[in-house]
Structure formats: structure tokens, C-alpha cells
């Protein structure tokens, strides 16, 4: 259960809100590079943190992200012409550079003098990996560029997708933290059929541990950038099999690895208070992804989704009841009847409504990871609002993180046992079972 | 089979408008929770938290007797009787943990399939392996480190 005022605080990320201010201390993924594929390509509408923006890539290759609407009459610059040096509104010809500065207002006699006073609000937009990242906060507080391992390994070692999730960002994030749902929703419960059916999960010894111990124990441990959430199951000789999920404030999570499959993770980025982007990535720190792996990812296997061609909306969505297959639900082939990990999550999280009323929850002790994450988010937002305290998670040291799967002696704290395994190290393979 | 329409379709049912039609009724306290402090420092925290208004939560400290818990009023009670009708037990400890008492409470919970959670309060962030080893087998979920607010938030979240 959560008080209504705290639910509001955590779920509202628009300008002027405490959680919105927190998000505006981080670089956030806003576009896949394929959305602005070449110099001088058409501009793209962007909505993030409840702000309507337009992204542009000039003929000179400069990226820009600015207010979507022309300063003159409020025309959407989606209709703008990308020209040398910027973007021109087609209505009366006002032209802006990539930073939103007006550089040509044809109707004005003293053109250059008039332009000095016309600037659209703009934000930095930079390419790191195959993602364009934006920072919507105070320029004076801009953190270092993102250094997440998935975005900085060589191009052929990583794959990123995104999908529209039609609910508040916190519902999606909490799914990423909630390790206890994996056994049922994705694993298929006692049959364990779900994990072995997915080409990006199958064949791992960890699947066997998952299947043979359906009631894991959990340990939630503070980490500098957020939390480490360890789920332990019984292994051979009295040892424990640990799956360690890192969460870094405010919206980054990773999935513990399975065998030598690529590692997975997510960013959950608010579009507005009732929609978010679920960014999903796969990467291998020490080798290129195989053609078969990339093909599976593009087809929606693992944590990815099959999207409607030309869009980032999943083929299975709320308009078609997520293509639920009651027969497969009945036989157990698909525990919820919905195909694919990503859509299994989105179907249930969207069913909660755009912003779930957390005053009605009946949480249990195994939800302690979610409870702790909410507490840390609230504290971070309040500390920033009340004292200007800089939040964690926006510096390279906190972003050099990995998920881990490992077998450890029963008496060893998992944080001690995994040692440096949860720290990203270029070229060093992940610790996995 | 006839395909459902209107509120049976996800597109309609997931809207904010439809959320307003969720049945609104008072929820009972979901948990009959016992909170046990296993050392003196933890007892201070538990006493402070116990002063807040709770539903059915009851608070104890560990006893030197392996069969007893001690209420905050100082009365000795049998562990088995106190956990008999609970559905969750929160174990609170610092580095001065009473391992025998943890094991006794843990065994009583395990026999009755009662959910257990452990909060390890580490004021300076340090925690010995012995403390962890003592509580780990008996807590289905552990928070490390935890503080007084964590106990309050956990009890609030589970409607204790």
C-alpha cells in the first residue's frame, strides 16, 4: 500500500514535479539512431517527461532536440523543412538552428536583430551506441555522458529495441525489479516451459535451478547507484544459485544472465504519466552477437517485442487483447496465454490501468525490493527538491554495472561472493550459469 | 466462441475512465504480523515503530529462553502460541544478534509455513558474516542494510 500523495509523487514526471526534476538530472534514451538515419532526414516528434519536442538531424550531421512548436504561430515543426543549418517552419518560413535559435525570419526587415530574441527551448541530443540520449535538465547540472556497458561495447556486440508501453513508467519499472514474478509469468510455473522455449534463454543450467526451486529467497542490498536484488535457489552440495538484478536510479534494470546468452536489460522512460518507452537491450561483453541471436531479437524473442512494421508499437497490444491464446494457457505452453516475455509483462502491467491506484495494493514481504525502490526514489526526489541533493546513478561509476548469475557457498554473502562480477569490465565476459 | 466486446476488451478496460469503475470498498488489514527484535539495539527501533498506529501488528523482543518471546510490556509468551495465528513475521536485528532465538522463531515459522522477512540494521554499514549466516536461513527476504524507515515502510506496505 502506498499513500496517494506518494503515488502521485512517484508517478508524475512532467515539468515542475519532484520526480520530473529527478529525471531531469539524467541522460535518458529518447530515440533509436534508426529514427534519424541520415544527415538531413525528416524531423521526428519526441514526447518525453510530458514535453512535446522535435528532433532534427541537419544536413551537416548535427543533432538537435527542441520545442516542437514554432515560436510564431504554434505550428508543429513536424512539418518543418530540414535545410542547411537547421529546420524551417513551412508556414511563414521561420528557421531555427539545431539549438532552437531562430536564424531567419523572412518577414522582418531587421532580420538578424529580431532573431536574437527568438529561441525555442532546446536540449542536448547526443549519440552513444545506437541510441540518441537527451538531457532535459539545468545545463549547469549536466552530468557526464552515459557510459552504460550495453551502449559502449563495439557495435556488433549489442542490440537495442524499444516498444511503446501504455501505462505509467513506474508500473513497468517495478516489473523489472520484481524478481518473484519471473518463475510464474515467464517461467511457466512448475513446468518451467517458458524459459526453455525462448532461444535467448534456453539451455542454461540456471533454468534447471529455476524450475527445481519455485520458492526462492530474496536479499535486497543497497548499492551505490541503487539496489542489488539477489534471488537465491538451492543448488548442488548445499550451495545456492544466485540471480542478481541491479537497479540504478531512476529507471535502469538488468536481467540476470543465462549461460553464454547475451545479457539483457531495460530503461523505462516516461513519455507522459500514462505511457512510457520500454527500451530493451541485449549485449555480450566479450563477443559479437550471432546472426541467429540478432534474428531472434528482431523477431521479438528474449526481452524484445515484435513491433508493427514502421512503428514501435507491439503487434500484440491492448487493441487485440495481446493475442492471448487460451488454449496454450490451458495446456501450460504459455502460462498467461500471451507470447513473449515483453508482452507478457506489458499485458499485465497495462491491465492495471494507466496509473495504478497503489492505495489498493496488498503487498507481501517478497515485494520488499519494490518497497525499497519506491522509498529510494521518494527520498531522492525529496532530497533534490528540499536540499538540492544530487541524486545517484548519473555518474560513470554507478553505470558500470552488470547483472550476475552465480553459484556460491551457503554461508557467503552474495555481495561478497560476486566480488567484481557486477562491475562492467570491457572485454571480460559476464559471470553466469 | 463469441468474441467479447466493450469492457471485456483490453483496449477499453485499461483506460483511466474505466479505472474509475473499479469497485471501491474498505480493505481489511491483510496481515497479522509479528515483529521481533533480536538484540538490544534492534529493540530500540522496534519500540519506536510500535508507537505508531498499526492494525494487527504485534511487537516483541527475543528472550534468553529458547521457547519465549517478550512483549514490549515485558510479558513472556511462548513463541509457538504467538506466531500460531500470524501470517508474517518480521525479524529485526543488528550485529548483536541472538542466533539461538532467531533459529527458534525461524523454526516455528517454517513449521507453520509463515512468511518471514529480515531487516538487518547496520548503522555504520558494517555487518558480520555470522549475523548474516544466523538470519539468512530463516528469512524468506532480507533487507541489508535497513533502517527504522524500512521497517515502517514494510509494515505500511503490507498493511500490518
Account of the protein in words:
The complex is a heterodimer of chains A (433) and B (160). The longest helix of chain A has 20 residues, at 368-387. The mean pLDDT of chain A is 94. Chain A has 433 residues and is α+β, with helices and mostly antiparallel strands. In chain A, the strands form four sheets. In chain A, strands 12, 13, 14, 15, 16, 17, 18 and 19 form an eight-stranded antiparallel sheet that branches. In chain A, strands 2-3-4-9 form a four-stranded antiparallel sheet, with no helix packed on it. Chain A is built from 14 helices and 19 strands. Chain B has 160 residues and is of the alpha/beta class. Chain B has a seven-stranded mixed sheet, with helices on both faces. The radius of gyration of chain B is 20 Å and the shape is elongated. Chains A and B meet through strand 13, helix 11 and helix 12 of A and helix 1, helix 2, strand 6, helix 6 and strand 7 of B.
Task: Provide keyphrases for this structure.
heterodimer; A: 433 residues; alpha+beta; 8-stranded antiparallel β-sheet; globular; B: alpha/beta; 7-stranded mixed β-sheet; 7 helices; 7 strands; 34% helix
